[in-house]
Structures are given as structure tokens and as C-alpha cells.
Amino acid sequence: MSQMDKESGFTHFDGDGNARMVDVSGKSESVRVALAAGSISMSASAYALVKSGSMAKGDVLGVARLAGIMAAKKVDELIPLTHPLMITKVNVDFVFHDENCAIEIQATVGICGKTGVEMEALTAVSMAALTIYDMCKAVDKTMVINNIRLLKKTGGKSGTFVR
Description:
The chain is α+β, with helices and mostly antiparallel strands. The chain has a single domain (24-162), classed as Molybdopterin cofactor biosynthesis C (MoaC) domain (Alpha-Beta Plaits). It contains five helices and five strands. It has helices at 3-8, 44-52, 60-72, 75-78, 118-136; strands at 30-41, 89-97, 102-113, 144-154, 161-162. It has a five-stranded antiparallel β-sheet with strand order 2-3-1-4-5, covered by helices on one side. A hairpin with a 6-residue loop joins strand 4 and strand 5 (161-162). Helix 3 (60-72) packs antiparallel against helix 5 (118-136). The chain is elongated and about 55 Å long.
């Protein structure tokens, strides 16, 4: 890596500016956990159907939870320079916000490995939100997915990050 790359912090580029997968072979394994969140807002009628479990397509949040878990396990197939990981846990949870007809999605992903799981947590949230949209679009096409972000990560050389 060139001096410029070290200063910029862009580790996915070599000294000539070419994309590369970061070599993590020299890194130590450690327990790493990432928590990401996002939300989907919708009409009052769609929100009521999801909350009551009455959406015509079935258990919206159950399917969205599975979609988030499955997505976290496939990030290396979706994002070009990520490493295939043997993740050890994925939890996808939902919080209802009645005041603005929004569902907050939270994903926690864990690993004992040489690289972090931030992308896996962010992808789990994204796919869960897209699944909710897909299952509810017949009732509400105005839904908005927003504020997908990393809330916390622990482990690794850089230590703990809390938003």
C-alpha cells in the first residue's frame, strides 16, 4: 500500500488505485459484533395490517426477519470486495413506532474472525426493509425506507464504535 493509501484510509485500493480485497491473513481473530438499524414508514392502514399480522401475503415481519438473516449470510455475493465470513449469529428485531406509522429494523451480527461484520448488519437491515416493502406494496406504494446506519461495532483492531 502506498503512503497516500495509508493516509487516506482507503484500504480497498492498491498503490495504483486498483480495487483489491484487503488481505486479512495477518490479523488476529477476535469476537466482533455489529448493530445496524433503519426504518420503513407507511400509511396508517398498511401499518395496522402489519402490526396485527393481517396482511394478505402473510407474516410480514417473520418473512422479513428470515430475509435479513439470509442476506447477512450472503454479503460476499452482493458486495464485491467483502470477505466470505462464517458468521456466528444474526438477530433481526422490529420496533413499532405508532406515532409515525414506522417500523424500526435492528440487526445484530456476530463473528469470531479476522474482519468485522458491519456490512452484514447493514445488509440484513436493508433486505428486511425491502421485504417489508415487497409484502406491503399492494396496500401502500408510498412506503419510505430510510436512515439505514451502523449504530455500534465492537472488536478488532479499531475497537469499539458507538454512533
